[in-house]
Design goal:
This protein is α/β, with parallel strands linked by helices. The chain has a single domain (3-313), classed as Alpha-Beta Barrel (TIM Barrel), CATH 3.20.20.140. It has helices at residues 14-22, 29-40, 44-52, 72-92, 108-120, 144-153, 183-197, 200-203, 222-232, 240-247, 258-268, 284-293, 298-313, and strands at 3-9, 57-62, 97-99, 127-129, 157-159, 209-211, 248-251, 273-274. 47% of the residues lie in helices and 10% in strands. It has 13 helices and 8 strands. Helix 4 packs parallel to helix 5 (108-120) and helix 5 runs parallel beside helix 6. The strands form 2 sheets. Strands 4-5-6-7-8 form a 5-stranded parallel sheet. A 3-stranded parallel sheet has the order 1-2-3.
């Protein structure tokens, strides 16, 4: 068996497609056109590709970022449209699909309510949040109502990559560093660290946060983060690595290589890593071929493949 957690879609509706295209204006249309077809497909073609790659269930999430819709009324409407659509997709294929909710956090109360609706009424397994909302990060007090609801419902939140609201000067003159190559990783790792250092994961100790892309580099830096935190006495009561190992799990999305997997296993252990692809931005088949040959024990492979996801989300 195999469960994949970071598998994206966009509603096949002009407003939703245009919103997705607006997020990647620098990407040529020749590339976005090629990605769009598998992105909107939630039918036979996707199911056939999943079967060929040994994926029994995909947890789908909307990649058209509602965090970037800054008017609360359309943000809630678009999120509800997406969540209702995804619910019908899951209902048609409950054996093969599950859902992560789109959450419009420009209005934290409305976002918390929509998260609760998606979980309790639509049967979703958590939420996927695409980074900051108009420059506001999830450790801020305004989002307490959301985290209270998350903890009460016991469902995980997938913190997905996104751009900072203001691009750092560091990237000027080197656009290659923006997006998935580097800036999304740096932004998402920093966002997760804010939740640690500003106390969100201590205040809400039952939260389970998911980070993709083999943990957005954090598993490889735990020793140094702990060391420098202790040296400058700037951190929480627990060490950052203790909080990460308690509250955060990671996925293999978009990282199909043995060294980062083995490092993550050494730092976090086999119970805190879950299989993912990042479809359609990465290849299901390539992910499967790598993972099936990865130098890990059969029991570890089984845990990463599906047992950890089943336990985390109650699949």
């Amino acid at each position: 068996m195999r469960v994949a957690l970071e598998e994206h879609f966009v509603m096949d509706e002009p407003e939703h497609i245009d919103r997705w295209r607006s997020l990647i204006p620098s990407v040529p249309s020749s590339i976005t056109d090629k990605i769009l077809k598998p992105l909107i497909d939630v039918g036979e073609a996707r199911l056939e590709a999943m079967a060929a790659a040994g994926i029994d269930k995909a947890v789908l999430s909307d990649t058209a970022i509602v965090q970037n819709v800054l008017d609360p009324t359309p943000a809630l409407r678009l999120a509800r449209e997406s969540n209702d659509y995804l619910a019908t997709v899951v209902q048609r294929q409950p054996k093969h699909y599950a859902g992560f909710a789109a959450v419009p956090l420009v209005d934290p109360v409305a976002g918390a309510d929509e998260f609760e609706r998606a979980v309790t009424q639509l049967g979703f397994k958590g939420a996927l949040i695409n980074g900051q909302t108009n420059g506001h990060y999830l450790d801020e007090d305004r989002f307490s109502v959301f985290w209270e609801r998350v903890e009460a419902l016991g469902k995980p939140v997938y913190l997905h990559a996104s751009d900072p609201v203001v691009p750092p000067v560091t990237y000027e003159g080197c656009p290659q560093l923006t997006g998935a190559v580097w800036s999304w990783t740096a932004e998402t790792a920093a966002h997760a660290l804010r939740l640690i250092f500003n106390g969100t994961l201590t205040k809400y100790p039952k939260i389970k946060l998911i980070l993709g892309h083999m943990g957005e580099t954090l598993p490889f830096l735990l020793w140094r983060i702990d060391r420098r935190t202790k040296a400058f006495a700037t951190g929480p009561a627990s060490t950052p690595s203790e909080i990460i190992k308690k509250n955060i799990v990671i996925t293999t999305s978009g990282v199909f290589a043995d060294p980062p997997l083995l490092c993550a296993l050494a730092e976090l252990g086999e119970d805190r890593i879950l299989y993912s692809v990042d479809h359609p931005f990465e290849s299901m088949q390539e992910a499967a071929e790598w993972f099936d040959k990865a130098p890990i024990h059969a029991e570890t492979r089984e845990k990463i493949s599906w047992r950890n996801a089943t336990q985390l989300m109650g699949l």
